């Protein structure tokens, strides 16, 4: 733990070792179904060293890993309680008698692009292999774990069960004359059964796994709104702070000075307002206000947003042509 950032150490304490956590609730529930205690002691330093490039905001690293383990507990709990898996469950419980506990090991997967799980018979431990990718949606991870658990104790070398067709073929006589003594099996008429439509749902993510606002808004799509407020004020609101900064620099560079004053101050006052959310510096609003006796309109801003920043307008004029909304789906470097 010595090589870990302080933020990660705090998250290990708050999201993993603390007794009052969603992870502890998930493992406690699983222990009640399984009948054995659960042991998990991740190598946080190794995991962080390998996966840190996929977690630019290190405050989401530990909560992200913990959410994967919680999802695994949900999938494993469903597998245990399914009566169809009774034989496989009995086999698992039999192999756990020597250790009297369920141990979970977190490793890095070199091949898979999703979290996977497997049972290592030689060590009697469950392995959760983490991919070298960004955190994926919970429902996708849950479906993957469910698929892995269904084939947990399946022997690929076993022959498939004999079908009715195979039994009939073995009863066919070799001599032509014996055909008369063979009773034809009754063939049931084919009945077409409609497939039930299965609805898919997305799961809401754990709030602790989400990036901070200043990191979350760096990903497309980017949104930008331009609003004309009278003849002397223009307001620009943007989800992408660098886009707003680029616009600000351009406007300041080309804003005219007031020739009636010796200091030649700008005829339009440009201000950038800091966002009310996040921890780092993030601006989300730019205002343009004309000085007394002057006017300012949004025309230059609209041209800059479309021709320079590459945003596309997503709506027609609203409120008498005073509001314009833009969207950009391609990210900036």
Describe the structure.
The chain starts with 5 loop residues before the first helix and ends in a 5-residue tail after the last strand. The radius of gyration is 32 Å and the shape is elongated. The strands form two sheets. Strands 7-8-6-5-10-9 form a six-stranded antiparallel beta sheet, with helices on one face. The protein has a four-stranded mixed beta sheet with strand order 1-2-4-3. It contains ten helices and ten strands. The protein is of the alpha+beta class. The relative contact order is 0.09. Helix 1 packs parallel to helix 4, helix 2 runs parallel beside helix 4 and helix 4 packs across helix 6. About 8% of the residues have low confidence.
Architecture blueprint of SSEs:
Elements: H1 6-17, H2 22-34, E1 38-40, H3 44-51, H4 61-81, H5 86-96, E2 102-108, E3 116-120, E4 125-130, H6 138-150, H7 164-170, H8 213-216, E5 222-228, E6 233-238, H9 241-254, E7 268-274, E8 283-290, H10 299-307, E9 312-313, E10 323-328
Parallel strand pairs: 1-2, 2-4
Antiparallel strand pairs: 3-4, 5-6, 5-10, 6-8, 7-8, 9-10
DSSP, total strands: 10
Oligomer: single chain
How many strands, what sense, and barrel or not for the largest sheet? 6 strands, antiparallel
What is the CA-atom radius of gyration, in angstroms? Answer: 32 Å
The chain-level mean pLDDT equals 82
The low-confidence runs, each spanning 5 or more residues with pLDDT under 50, are: 155-173, 190-198
Morphology = elongated
Strand content: 15-25%
Distance between the termini: 33 Å
- What is the chain-wise order of helices and strands? HHEHHHEEEHHHEEHEEHEE
Strand order of the largest sheet: 7-8-6-5-10-9
Structural class: alpha+beta
Percentage of residues assigned to helices: 25-40%
Please work out how many helical segments DSSP would assign.
10
